[in-house]
Design brief:
With 327 residues, this protein is of the alpha/beta class. It has a single domain, classed as TIM Barrel (Alpha-Beta Barrel). It has 15 helices and 8 strands.
Length: 327
């Protein structure tokens, strides 16, 4: 561990900063984990794109289709690559089985991961949700020393209230939250939690305004940092640095210049195939995308053609070598 449990909040306040991204997990034609491809992606994200940390084996990473052993292996690979790049990791330990959550959390702690993230549980009966969720996270926090990020998303069937999040922020190793909620909710939590909880959300489009208006220090996290940037075109990194220096108008101009890329990604993404679409976009960038596992669907040839056309006209500067590799 890089810090003691009682120091987890201070450590996170100092180190959980900048642009973080959620990793897609590459699977080969045989649907086996493509470890070499994953390493290549991690090295590119850390070293070429300057991404500060990677969210490993979350929903974007298809954890729900992976064995516990596979999830641990992705943790190992990410931790090794982060250490060699001087970067960081946050390991997703989300699962409906609490024993699995704790097994993954202990593994993350043992390999010196920086933090873990745990999605709020599905509540099949829905009574006394606040007390149930509080006790769920309190128990996890009691069992491990590593810093924990909460994660509230509509997929759970409910949203954690700012009041519940603030209550959880009193626990010593609850350090952050990925809060996928309307802006008025996460703005209120930011004001309520103060220095006890680092608040973030997945929206790249809202990131600049959240730096300026809410004083946020971390974008935690989604796929745009490596889908909308290349070695030659790091505009998310650029506008983030400008905003952190207080050069707001310049930051907004750079942020707005990415709108064609945002729209190209949005308008070509079919319903129900977000991972397959993003993995194909990765391949167009020269990264390792690979296949998705069931129950997810692959793109059709028509969907790939529409995505390629949008990619080629969006104005993102791609390395010639990467474009050749994706041809």
């Amino acid at each position: 561990m890089k810090y003691r449990k009682r120091d987890a909040k201070d450590y996170a306040r100092t180190h959980l900063k900048g642009i973080w991204a959620a990793a897609l997990t590459p699977f080969g034609p045989d649907l086996v984990l493509d470890e070499d491809g994953f390493r290549r992606n991690l090295r590119h994200w850390y070293r070429d794109l300057g991404i500060a940390g990677i969210f490993v084996a979350g929903k974007q990473g298809e954890f729900f289709s992976m064995s516990v052993a596979e999830r641990k292996r992705t943790f190992d690979v990410a931790a090794e690559e982060a250490a060699s790049a001087g970067a960081a990791t946050i390991m997703s330990c989300s699962d409906q089985n609490l024993d699995t959550v704790l097994e993954l959390a202990r593994h993350a702690q043992a390999i010196d991961a920086d933090y873990i993230v745990v999605h709020s549980p599905l509540l099949h009966f829905g009574r006394d949700a606040d007390d149930t969720v509080y006790e769920y996270y309190r128990h996890i926090a009691e069992q491990v020393d590593i810093g924990i990020a909460l994660w509230s998303h509509p997929d759970a069937g409910y949203l954690m209230s700012p009041e519940l999040c603030t209550r959880l922020a009193e626990l010593p190793n609850i350090v952050a939250i990925k809060y996928s909620v309307p802006r008025d909710m996460y703005a209120r939590l930011t004001r309520m939690a103060g220095d006890k909880l680092i608040v973030s959300t997945a929206s790249e489009e809202e990131w600049l305004d959240n730096i300026v208006e809410l004083g946020w220090q971390v974008y935690l996290c989604s796929t745009p940092p490596y889908l909308m940037q290349t070695r030659r075109d790091r505009r998310i990194h650029e506008y983030t640095e400008l905003a952190m220096r207080g050069e707001i108008e310049r930051a907004r101009a750079v942020r707005d210049s990415l709108e064609p890329v945002r729209q190209a990604l949005k308008r070509t993404r079919p319903k129900g195939t977000p991972q397959a679409h993003q993995k194909y976009w990765q391949e167009l960038l020269g990264q390792t995308g690979g296949r998705v596992r069931r129950p997810l669907l692959e793109l059709t040839d028509e969907e790939k053609a529409a995505t390629r056309a949008a990619f080629e006209s969006c104005g993102l500067k791609v390395d010639p070598a990467a474009r050749k590799a994706a041809a």
